[in-house]
Amino acid sequence: MRQKSDQLRSSKLITYLLLIVILFLGLLCLYYGSSFAPGSDPESLRRDGSDPVLGSLPGPQHFDDDSLQNLELPRTIPICDMKYSELIPCLDRELIYQLRLKLNLSLMEHYERHCPPPQRRLNCLIPPPAGYKFQIPIRWPESRDEVWKANIPHTHLASEKSDQNWMVVKGDKINFPGGGTHFHYGADKYIVSLARMLKFPNDKLHNGGNLRNVLDVGCGVASFGAYLLQHSTIAMSLAPNDVHENQIQFALERGIPSTLGVLGTKRLPYPSRSFDLAHCSRCRIDWLQRDGILLLELDRVLRPGGYFAYSSPEAYAKDPENLRIGNAMHDLLKRMCWRVASKKDQTVIWQKPTSNGCYLKREPGTQPPLCSIEDDADGVWNVQMKACISQYSAQMHREKGTGLVPWPQRLITPPPRLEDIGVSPEEFHEDTRIWKFRVNEYWKQMKSVVRKSYFRNVMDMNANLGGFAAALKDTDVWVMNVAPVTISARLKIIYDRGLIGTVHDWCESFSTYPRTYDLLHAWAVFSELEERGCSTEDLLVEMDRILRPEAFVIIRDKPSIISYIQKSLPALKWDRWVSEVEPSTDALSVSEERVLIARKKLWSD
């Protein structure tokens, strides 16, 4: 009897021990279930089993403060395969092929944004190329003329454009002599020639500060924009991810304001009346297609009296097809009320009217038509281009211009279009003052680890009125001011201040190459993302993609979000240096805030 009792106790003990082991293993699996060690097999990164780069971070979700505090985070985030080192998720031609999208190649739809659905999004950290150099960085202004070849190991443009002086490979560096398709002997001389054509004072293209914002379409490696900077003029240099696929990557590595984009079927992500000059130097664009819809898009973004400089190679001077195109463009632009401001050799500069006067005098039925009065010329995100002329507002028509003061006073002077968004001049000045104070506080927080000269390419992910960028006016940086889609109307104020930027939806990936920004500033970006039900984790991985090694993030948001993000820093490898403070309250504080500044480590696969 006693033997049976002992056996029964032993059996129960073994059962209990097995249950404890099973429970322990279960907890262990739960702990590591969402984790992948760096360098693990890319096949394990799938969400839906269809692509090895796809990950398994949580999808779109909404968290209240308590759930954010208690949410379990992945302990590590996997490293992507090296073949994804230059991935741009929404401009990925392989994705277009996999999704079998039916796109019109003649309309450049394949160069427009096509983002992966949530279940196919990236869930790994993009590795830098082998030999990536950061220990001896080439800072601006030296970076205008040379970059490390290892950071962008592509030399095909150097040989393809060798006769045009785009770029030259010299040892372990790539040099940029300043040439272009139409200005083989240097963009600096070409810029002076444009100023002379327009008879601007002292051969300065800025025209006394009245010409500030430029759109350079088909920009190549952006040497035109690079040399404009010394003329107190800033260009948004724009080119698609086409056969010259690394041109914008080179531009950003050089520290030149630039972005990926194309004149295709959708409006450019810029408000109406944003640019003083549009420029196209043999940019291979068919301006006559679809009733001149691409020229009409330029018309939309040009300011009253704005210019369009178009250059073609001398070899085309007597080419019959080029002459036909030139005559047809002249006829179309005349019907759009543009006039030839100057013409010399193979460069012609048109100027658009300063008021609606010419439009109202056109014969009935003249093409292209005027846009309907209901059309919102500032509505741009995923909006199709329209083959019509955007009329000026009643105020612009009366004033025959924008009413903007010259640069640099333009930066701090309330622009007339503030009224459009319901902001008073007093609120504008207060916003400028607050951001000057906030930025000074950021520098104090970082001064022990970095100098102001460290930064060149900066992005403000929620730019509001452009106050953050305005506060950086005395530093050697340029800022990509991003207006989230929910407040996109404010971007026109940023342009009216003489700054540049773009509209973007942070529920999606940004149109830039990996490793292109030195500093990302995110004020209330995650709060807005949370309200819309988009994934915080997806945005953190996207920010990591954009950041260069050793770059910084400044995240200003409510405490629960800051606490959650801080727990993510080791997984993101953003714990090279970390600082968190509680800032003072000001008129822009909608609730209690915390400021988290973190630095990304350099790592390799």
UniProtKB/TrEMBL annotation:
CDD domains under this entry?
Answer: AdoMet_MTases
Predominant localisation class: Golgi
Quote any Pfam family the record assigns: Methyltransf_29
Q: What membrane topology was assigned to this protein in its record?
A: Single-pass type II membrane protein
Query: Can you tell which superkingdom this protein's organism belongs to?
Result: Eukaryota
Record keywords, A-Z: Glycoprotein, Golgi apparatus, Membrane, Methyltransferase, Signal-anchor, Transferase, Transmembrane, Transmembrane helix
Q: Is Transmembrane among this UniProt entry's keywords?
A: yes
This protein's record includes keyword Chloroplast: no
Q: Name one GO molecular function term.
A: methyltransferase activity
Q: Which family does it belong to?
A: Belongs to the methyltransferase superfamily.
Q: What is this protein called?
A: Methyltransferase
